[in-house]
């Protein structure tokens, strides 16, 4: 089976969705070998405990710069012989140190339809912009911010009755479904990157 590592900073509901999918046999040929959080108080750590998944807190405060932190991250992931790194609300940019160590093997989920509304507070950005549709994007991570090859996207309409909270909640629901599907495809060996494009094979 492929070895997955999930990186988080907070709640971990996307991590939970992937755990549930593996346990239910909806993702096969994969196991989560570790959860890594840069925050000691991330709720995701409790979720890991509940499912007997080993977890590690790697606090960025202990490192002089991003590169040093990422080097520690790479070492940890190599120790665990990780095949796929899954960013699930990991609120740190990755340096070339990480990207070069895992080419086309780091996935991220972003709460908007990229390339619209990259960066922080994407739900708020779409809401404030007055967009009629937003959604979520699962993509491979490259050296830019939210610029990597797109794997899957799901559309969420912005309703007249929405608040940014209700919108965020609906996007979250789509994220769980979309992320599980992207990880499932990866683990089935069905994703191939050609330039900017991700080819999904039968
Ligand atoms: C998700 O909405 C994810 O799209 C977002 O953080 C949330 C984590 O939720 N990620 C980003 O904004 C990345 N820039 P979760 O901890 O419940 O999975």
Automatic annotation (TrEMBL):
<comment type="function">
    <text>Catalyzes the transfer of a formyl group from 10-formyltetrahydrofolate to 5-phospho-ribosyl-glycinamide (GAR), producing 5-phospho-ribosyl-N-formylglycinamide (FGAR) and tetrahydrofolate.</text>
</comment>
<dbReference type="InterPro" id="IPR002376">
    <property type="entry name" value="Formyl_transf_N"/>
</dbReference>
<feature type="binding site">
    <location>
        <begin position="12"/>
        <end position="14"/>
    </location>
    <ligand>
        <name>N(1)-(5-phospho-beta-D-ribosyl)glycinamide</name>
    </ligand>
</feature>
<feature type="binding site">
    <location>
        <position position="108"/>
    </location>
    <ligand>
        <name>(6R)-10-formyltetrahydrofolate</name>
    </ligand>
</feature>
<comment type="similarity">
    <text>Belongs to the GART family.</text>
</comment>
<protein>
    <recommendedName>
        <fullName>Phosphoribosylglycinamide formyltransferase</fullName>
        <ecNumber>2.1.2.2</ecNumber>
    </recommendedName>
</protein>
<keyword id="KW-0808">Transferase</keyword>
<feature type="binding site">
    <location>
        <position position="66"/>
    </location>
    <ligand>
        <name>(6R)-10-formyltetrahydrofolate</name>
    </ligand>
</feature>
<dbReference type="GO" id="GO:0005829">
    <property type="term" value="C:cytosol"/>
</dbReference>
<dbReference type="GO" id="GO:0006189">
    <property type="term" value="P:'de novo' IMP biosynthetic process"/>
</dbReference>
<dbReference type="GO" id="GO:0004644">
    <property type="term" value="F:phosphoribosylglycinamide formyltransferase activity"/>
</dbReference>
<keyword id="KW-0658">Purine biosynthesis</keyword>
<dbReference type="InterPro" id="IPR004607">
    <property type="entry name" value="GART"/>
</dbReference>
<dbReference type="InterPro" id="IPR036477">
    <property type="entry name" value="Formyl_transf_N_sf"/>
</dbReference>
<feature type="active site" description="Proton donor">
    <location>
        <position position="110"/>
    </location>
</feature>
<feature type="domain" description="Formyl transferase N-terminal">
    <location>
        <begin position="3"/>
        <end position="183"/>
    </location>
</feature>
<comment type="pathway">
    <text>Purine metabolism; IMP biosynthesis via de novo pathway; N(2)-formyl-N(1)-(5-phospho-D-ribosyl)glycinamide from N(1)-(5-phospho-D-ribosyl)glycinamide (10-formyl THF route): step 1/1.</text>
</comment>
<feature type="binding site">
    <location>
        <begin position="91"/>
        <end position="94"/>
    </location>
    <ligand>
        <name>(6R)-10-formyltetrahydrofolate</name>
    </ligand>
</feature>
<dbReference type="Pfam" id="PF00551">
    <property type="entry name" value="Formyl_trans_N"/>
</dbReference>
<feature type="site" description="Raises pKa of active site His">
    <location>
        <position position="146"/>
    </location>
</feature>
